[in-house]
Amino acid sequence: MGNFAEGCAKNHQLNRAEQDAFAKQSYVKALKAIETNAFNAEMVPISVKTKKREVLVSVDEKPGRADFEKALKLKPAFEKEGDNYRL
């Protein structure tokens, strides 16, 4: 997937700054959709057994935790000179 993303970026001449801006915009839109319950019709709570108890998971706990300043400092992950460094 990462190498495919690198190829797409090259084919469409998207630089790192453009990719960063798109990623942040997409992330902000997703957070807004979560806050306004736009995804509720697509989400189904699931029961997860842990060692101590059973937990009902109905909300994704990861959104809202991204650090874009930190992400800007990461090195490419797939190609040495690539731009897709966060995948």
Automatic annotation (TrEMBL):
Residues 1-82 form the Thiolase N-terminal domain. GO terms for molecular function: acyltransferase activity, transferring groups other than amino-acyl groups. InterPro entries: Thiolase-like, Thiolase_N. Keywords: Acyltransferase, Transferase. It comes from the Bacteria. Belongs to the thiolase-like superfamily. Thiolase family. This is Thiolase N-terminal domain-containing protein. It comes from Helicobacter suis.
